[in-house]
């Protein structure tokens, strides 16, 4: 099974979020819904939004990294000109969000969100800092592995897929119920980025490659 189930008891939030009844088929025209939903105009996405380290007056703290890859369809063809968004914790493992109050420092030079459009080959590229692990209250002594959230849009908000990118060799993998909620071990590995020496920039930033293949990369269903 590639995608995590709606209900995964070890991941406690799914006990409240997972649907308890069969889905209902909407009678409205799906195309009409998509056409009337809000959309991003491509002109609104600026090049600088893909550099999460250059959004403030100073440099953020932490290990600078380059994350790049391709968005592909189920047949391996590039998904062109599609909106890719990322969001993440800072290098200390804290989000710039009012609901995150655990005692790790905020970084005034890091908001932790960016976006870009894929090119004609389905490629994207972000510059950021490596996020830190952080505690969460799912169970006793629970910690999330370092990760970056990815959102891939279609032509409207109704066409949106969300997943997470992890880093190789993280010791928290066996203890994370979100990562482990994916039953298939091979599918879990598709969420782990690969170190990419070609994308690494000398004396500046390490590179990681993370390809998203629609239908094969596990997505967040719960």
Automatic annotation (TrEMBL):
Alphabetized GO MF terms: ferric iron binding; protocatechuate 3,4-dioxygenase activity
NCBIfam families in the record: protocat_beta (TIGR02422)
Signal sequence, renumbered to the chain: none
Intradiol ring-cleavage dioxygenases domain segment(s): 67-95
Organism: Planotetraspora kaengkrachanensis
GO biological process: 3,4-dihydroxybenzoate catabolic process
Key words of the record: Dioxygenase, Oxidoreductase
Keyword Oxidoreductase included in the entry's annotation: yes
SUPFAM superfamilies the UniProt entry points to: Aromatic compound dioxygenase
Pfam families in the record: Dioxygenase_C (PF00775), PCDO_beta_N (PF12391)
Family: Belongs to the intradiol ring-cleavage dioxygenase family.
Protein name (record): Protocatechuate 3,4-dioxygenase subunit beta
InterPro entries: Intradiol_dOase_C, Intradiol_dOase_core, Intradiol_RC_Dioxygenase, PCDO_beta_N, Protocat_dOase_b
